[in-house]
Design goal:
Helix content is 85%, strand content 0%. The protein is mainly α and 157 residues long. The protein has one domain. The longest helix is centred in the N-terminal third of the chain and has 33 residues. The radius of gyration is 17 Å and the shape is globular. The termini are far apart.
């Protein structure tokens, strides 16, 4: 019986650990953005997207799996947006931006919109933590939609 409890506890810890790692990477992304490191932000949020994909693949409950899939899509949009900023800065930071930068912004906007639609279509979760995560990511999609629209204009795409 002790082995069963240890094994079950280990599995629970691993899932909590993976979710915690995804959250840590998301926080690391915010910190990179705050210090003006879009390349670091893109790398961190790309890793967070991988964690979201991993969590979605392991999840048995359909609604929670869809939440993680929408989260992955949001993170991929953020990754593309940060890559666009980094590329724009590397190219001198003067508009008009290159086609590559504009394509990154376009892909980012598509991913963020797709994520927002998916997140808003999910039923309300009874689990408070999942409900809070869903709402936080909906707010993040709204922030990124505005940011990407502004960048599109600022970069003269």
């Amino acid at each position: 019986m002790v082995l069963t409890i240890t094994w079950a506890g280990s599995g629970f810890t691993q899932v909590v650990g993976e979710l915690g790692e995804m959250d840590r990477l998301e926080q690391q992304t915010e910190e990179a953005i705050a210090i003006g490191d879009p390349e670091g932000a893109a790398l961190s949020i790309g890793k967070a997207a991988l964690m979201a994909r991993f969590l979605a693949q392991k999840e048995e409950r359909q609604e929670t799996r869809f939440l993680y899939q929408a989260t992955e899509t949001l993170f991929r949009g953020q990754e593309q947006g940060n890559r666009a900023i980094a590329l724009f800065e590397r190219a001198g930071g003067q508009p008009p931006a290159s086609n590559g930068v504009c394509q990154y912004l376009s892909h980012a906007a598509d991913k963020v919109n797709q994520s927002q639609n998916a997140l808003e279509s999910l039923a309300d979760f009874t689990n408070e933590a999942l409900k809070e995560r869903q709402q936080r990511h909906i707010e993040k999609t709204q922030e990124w939609r505005s940011l990407l629209q502004g960048l599109h204009q600022d970069f003269s795409c």
